[in-house]
Amino acid sequence: MVRFLASKGAKIRVTDLRDSKVLRPSINQIKDLIKAGAVELVLGKHRKQDFAWADIVVRNPAVKPGNEYIEYAKKLGKRIVMEMALFFALAPGLKLGVTGTRGKSTTTMLTYLFLKSGNQNFSNVLLAGNIGQSAVAQLDSLDQSSLTVLELSSFQLSVMRENKQSPNVAVVTNIYPDHLNWHPDMEHYVISKRTIVEFQKPSDFAVINLSNTYTRDFVDHTSASVYGALEEPVQHKSKFSGVKDVYFYKDGYIYSIKRGRVYKVPDQTYLKGKHNMFNILLAYITAKLPIFSVPDSIITKVLREFKGLPGRQEYIGTLNNVDFYNDTAATMQDATVAAIERFSKQYGEGTVVIIGGMDKGLGYEKLASALKESGAKVVVLEGSASEKIAELLDKENIEYYGLYDDIYKAVHKAYELASGFKKSCVVLSPGAASFNMFANEWDRGDKFKEAVSRLGAKIDEE
After folding, report:
1. What is the pTM of this model?
2. All domains in the chain, ordered by first residue
3. Cβ distance 390 to 400 under 8 Å?
4. Angle at CA 459, nearest 5°, toward 457 and 461?
5. pLDDT in tens, 16-71
């Protein structure tokens, strides 16, 4: 964002409560602009004078609603923007947005790969948004025949709502309680997510999860042509009004309620688990919309080659028959429950899960139940969420180890617990935020990988 604004001749002042030591990697990316005098840094604090100085205030997605400095800028009549809202205001071409609590990154990437590989109607297909690619950085490469595939968070959508912005094609995976340390309540979270369909036009399209209580309601809040997806095959007998067609996955095939069996999912796909089959289903429906019509052969080729995204049940290696998986992107209990279900089914009593971190205002009852039912062994990192989880585990008489304030010690203990089985695994699937011990969830995943590597070196020496 900083580099884009600087390229347009803006004078920029960056303010952050974190200090230069913590922000060093980000600062290094713009040090040429700082040296040239295009960017000034005010770190370790916020000052009202900086907000009074600016004509436009670019709000970071992590800044909560009602922030005193944002409210101060509003009172002064300053224009408040966020990157994604600015992108939607400026970007030419078609915009496809994916949102949800779980599965949105994998669904976004699959959709992007399907459309990029099977593109027949667009000059170029680009990936951006919450998946790690800056959206505004893509602006200069877009024209009216471009297609941008975007992963959209509730933070981004909440500001897009203020501007009444929705993508031309909206994909909604699901909604579960999340980010309640940022949103005032669950209603605010759901309404923020609903922005993705609410301002669509009759010429637009929406692919919506009809099995989820919250997202099913989205059908009544869009003017777009709606296509539905079901998480459970038995639900296809239900009545759904206001949709063009409804799809579901069953026993290796995708079915349309109107047309019957329509596609065979390749057996060779790297994506495993019920949740990933639903991600594939959503991406398939999107790729088959009338404006895209991607051939089955392209979809099959992508599914055979795509190995999944980093940090999402990512296989990282094996030490003495113990397999290690990095699922650091599991920052809520539902995602961790999905991991427990998958790996305990695959590894049985040899499953060890590393959980815990910082609380996001969520409950952990389902996580405790999944751990008890699976019989998985449990290692817990320290944090405010971990303390809540530990109370539930004690209540259910579930044995656990921790709370660890060192990721290496946690990995070492998990390895000990996993050793001695014919097949076993250690899975980092925290079910919580990372900021108490790590810079972010990706830093947590990297530190986990480093700990596994360090453990492997130690084993080799013995």
Report:
1. 0.83
2. 2-81 (3.40.50.720), 84-305 (3.40.1190.10), 314-461 (3.90.190.20)
3. yes
4. 70
5. 998 888 888 889 989 999 999 999 999 999 999 999 999 999 988 778 878 999 99
